[in-house]
Amino acid sequence: DGGITQSPKYLFRKEGQNVTLSCEQNLNHDAMYWYRQDPGQGLRLIYYSQIVNDFQKGDIAEGYSVSREKKESFPLTVTSAQKNPTAFYLCASIQGSGNQPQHFGDGTRLSIL
Amino acid sequence: GQSLEQPSEVTAVEGAIVQINCTYQTSGFYGLSWYQQHDGGAPTFLSYNALDGLEETGRFSSFLSRSDSYGYLLLQELQMKDSASYFCAARMDSSYKLIFGSGTRLLVRP
User: Fold this and answer.
1) What span, in angstroms and rounded, lies between the C-alpha atoms of A92 and B63?
2) Which residues of chain A have pLDDT under 70?
3) CA distances from A106 to A98, A102, B44, B81, B95 (A)
4) Which residues of B touch A (CB under 8 A)?
5) What is the C-alpha separation between A61 and B69, in angstroms, rounded?
6) What's the pLDDT at A1?
7) Minimum distance, in Å, between the CA of residue B41 and any CA atom of chain A
8) A interface residues, B as partner, C-beta within 8 Å
9) What share of chain B is helix, strand, coil (3-state, %, to 5)?
10) Is residue B54 within 8 Å of residue B76, measured between CB atoms?
11) What is the per-residue pLDDT for A97?
């Protein structure tokens, strides 16, 4: 079945450490997105990519970095510059034409050790 | 700035009808989406309105009025499994970026 796979499901970060969250999709979607969700809040856009080798900052990009070397992969690195990284991180993708919905992965829950 | 406003919490009885409103303020607007999210889970798509009017999908319907910058999600014949958070999300431009509201927590009581 086609879908979006995020890993790991749970991740713990030590002070000063960079961690990378994986997002892979086999839907052949052009565009991919990373969101952050804090408890009881909506989703806020971190980064997005509409094509391979290109990506744009969202509303809360500081302390995060991404790459899009392959169409199916859009990893997110939470750097040590992100002082409050504890949140639920969601990856999404969309075909990029017509009235298509965004498809979401199951998320990664990141906590500070 | 860009913002979407929706009520934080709604409670309804099993079998009833509930309406969740969403008003938006965005610099551009292509359409309004609705997503459902159960605790600990990922959002799942419910509906999308690009044009004014009502879209019906089974027990769920969604309405949009572009002139009023307003939309709503209507849930009929409520079931206990409908207890979840519901988010409206505005698509602002051709990039398919979405701006999400902070969500409405729906509690369905027996």
Assistant:
1) 24
2) 1, 96-99
3) 24, 13, 10, 19, 23
4) 4, 31, 33, 41-45, 48, 50, 87, 89, 95-103
5) 28
6) 63
7) 6
8) 31, 33, 35, 40-45, 48, 50, 56, 58, 90, 94, 96, 99-107
9) 5, 55, 40
10) no
11) 63
